[in-house]
Amino acid sequence: MIVRGIDKGKSFDWGKTSADYAKYRDIYPQEFYDYILNLGLCKDGQKVLDLGTGTGVLPRNMYKYGAKWTGTDISENQIEQAKMLVKEAKMDIDFFASRAEDVSFPDNTFDVLTACRGVEASMSPETLAAWDKEHKEMLEKNAPENFTVKHYVSIAELQVRKSKNV
After folding, report:
1. Of 9, 48, 85, 165, which has fewest CB within 10 angstroms of its CB?
2. Is 83 or 2 the better-scoring residue by pLDDT?
């Protein structure tokens, strides 16, 4: 993948980080999941599509609430790690490697759609414009004129402490 504004246009491959993501990137606090549940989402037999699932953090952590999850990600390596993790945990979650704009299911297949970060990063300008248009139409049809979109940003600067015993 190449994004001109990152690393001076050098390609990058999320798949190379997949094993580390699977091991260390279970990043959301319980309050995040509770918030989703309190909205009445991702539980009780609902069918949920998670676009940009990565190693399946969201589906794996919310599986116990009873939704039927399907996760897609552009990185085949991320999907392979997700499949390994759900197999170890004996979870029934479907994962597919696919670009977000190429995902295709019949109408009314899913009750809920979740999208992890990176939708814009994975689309051409034309595809993004089409996605934005469809998203705007969906919001106009289903959402009130004014609503709040909450965001959370966390920055951690970590340094290795040198032990005096070394």
Report:
1. 165
2. 83
Place of tokens 């032990």: 163
Dihedral sign for Cα atoms in the order 96, 100, 106, 112: positive
pTM to 2 decimals? Answer: 0.66
* pLDDT for position 156: 47
Question: Which residue bears the tokens 């918030």?
Answer: 35
Handedness of CA 99, 100, 101, 107 (dihedral sign): positive
Rounded to whole angstroms, how far apart are CA atoms 162 and 166? 8
- Tokens linked to 113: 């759609």
Q: How far apart are CA 88 and CA 72, in angstroms?
A: 19
**Cα–Cα distance, 62 to 140 (Å, whole number):** 29
Q: Label residue 155 by pLDDT band (50, 70, 90).
A: very low
Rounded CA gap, 49 and 57, in Å?
13
The C-alpha atoms of residue 21 and residue 73 are separated, in whole angstroms, by 13
